[in-house]
Amino acid sequence: AYGYEITENASDADLWLLNSCTVKNPAEDHFRNSIKKAQEENKKIVLAGCVPQAQPRQDYLKGLSIIGVQQIDRVVEVVEETIKGHSVRLLGQKKDNGKRLGGARLDLPKIRKNPLIEIISINTGCLNACTYCKTKHARGNLASYPIEELVERAKQSFQEGVCEIWLTSEDTGAYGRDIGTNLPALLWKLVEVIPEGAMLRLGMTNPPYILEHLEEMAKILNHPRVYAFLHIPVQSASDTVLMEMKREYCVADFKRVVDFLKEKVPGITLATDIICGFPGETDQDFQETVKLVEEYKFPSLFINQFYPRPGTPAAKMAQVPAQVKKQRTKDLSRVFHSYSPYDHKIGERQQVLVTEESFDSKFYVAHNRFYEQVLVPKNPTFMGKMIEVDIYESGKHFMKGQPVSDAKVYTPSISKPLAKGQVSGLTEDFRKRLGTDLSSVPHTSTVRRDPASSRMALRLQKLRGDCASGVSVGLALLALLLALLVKVYN
Q1: What distance in Å separates the CA atoms of residue 73 and residue 255, rounded to the nearest whole number?
Q2: Which residue, 29, 96, 436, 452, shows the most beta carbons closer than 10 Å to its own?
Q3: In total, how many domains does the chain have?
Q4: What is the pTM of this model?
Q5: Which residues form the TRAM domain (predicted)?
C-alpha cells in the first residue's frame, strides 16, 4: 500500500497541491507561475481555490485535477486518483433537498496554523453583485452554517487549548439571512462559551448589513471577550463610483456606521479598504476618498490599485489609465502614512493577549482590547497568556509594551493547546481505532500561505500496509488543506 508524507522540499514531492485566490490579477499570475513550475518539474498537480472554480476551462488548467471550493472534504480521493494518472474535477455545488449548502463540514479534522487561534468560517458566498468582484462567481450566493454548529466548533476549539477565535467569511454581516437568523444572534451565543480572558475577533462586514444591527453590534463590541475591532470596506467615498461598483450603500451610510460605532464603542479600531482607479473614477471622485481618509484617519487601511478581473462587468467599462491609477494609489498611501495612530497611547497600561511571534522573530505579538498590535519581549512564558504591559514606543502599525513586573500573567486557555501540527477534531476513541497517534503526522513549512497561492508538497512512500496508516495520513492531508483554504480578512 502507498501512503503520503508531507515534505519540506518541494522538489522531492510527487504531487503539488496548489491553492489559489482570484481577488487580484497578481494573485492569479502567481498561481499560473506555480503551475508552470510544477509542470516543468514533472509533478502531479491538484488545484484548489477560487481561480479554477471560477474559470475551469482556462487553457493553462487543461488536464489538471481540480477540487472545487465546496468539495475540499474529498481531497484524499482527488489526490489518490491524480497520483494514479487520472484527471479529476469536482466543481459541483452541494445541496440538501434542493437548498444550497455551505462549504465543508465544520467538524472535519484540521491542523491549525497557530494552535492558539481557531479560524471559523461562518458562511460562504455573499449577497452582493459588485461589478469588480470575481469571488462571487466562484463561491456563489450566501450559505450560512447553523448557529448550533458554529457554537459547537467554538466549544471544541477551547477544549483544545485555543484562546482566540477569528470569525471569517466573504461578508460576516450578511450571516444568517438565508436561514432566518442574523449576526448578533450568533455572536450572543458564541460569547456564552468563550472562557474568561479568551477573545473573539469579528471579520469583514459590508456596510449595508451592519446598518440594520448597529445597536446590538455596539453592545457586542463592548463585551470584554470581544475585540473592539471591525473591518468595514468603503472602497470609495464617491457615491457615483459606489453606484458603478453596485455596492448598495452610499458614503453617508458608511459614515453613519463609523460615527455610531466610534461614539458607542470608545476607542474602537475600524479598518477599511479603498480601490484606487475604478473605471470612470474622476479626480474629484478620488479627492472625496482622500478627504474621507484625512477625516477619519483609519489606523488600518488596505489600499488597492484597481485590476480588471476577466469576466466581470467592470472589466468591460472604460478604464482609468494605468499611470493615473498608480499615481492615485501612491497619493493615498502618502496620506495614510502622514499620521501616527498610536503616538497618544505611549504611557498607557494595557492588558494584551500574546498569540504569535513577530515576522522578524525578535518579539512576541500581542493584541490589546482594540486589536491593536503590541510587541512584547520574547519570553516563552508569555505565549498564550494575557499580560499587563506599559506602552513605551509606537510605530505606524504597532506599539511596544514592557511587561509590568508585579502583574499577574493570566492563562485564558482552559486546557493545554495542541502541539504545532497536531490534528484537531479527532476523539481519543477514534485515534485508538486507527491504531496510530495522528499527533505525530509530519507538519511542514512547505504548507504556507501567501497573497497569491499556497502549496503543499506530497511524497509517496511505501508503507507496510494496514489501512490505518493510509487513513491517518489521509486525514492529515485533509486537515492541512482545510487549514490552507481558510480565507482570513485582516
Answers
A1: 41
A2: 452
A3: 3
A4: 0.81
A5: 343-405
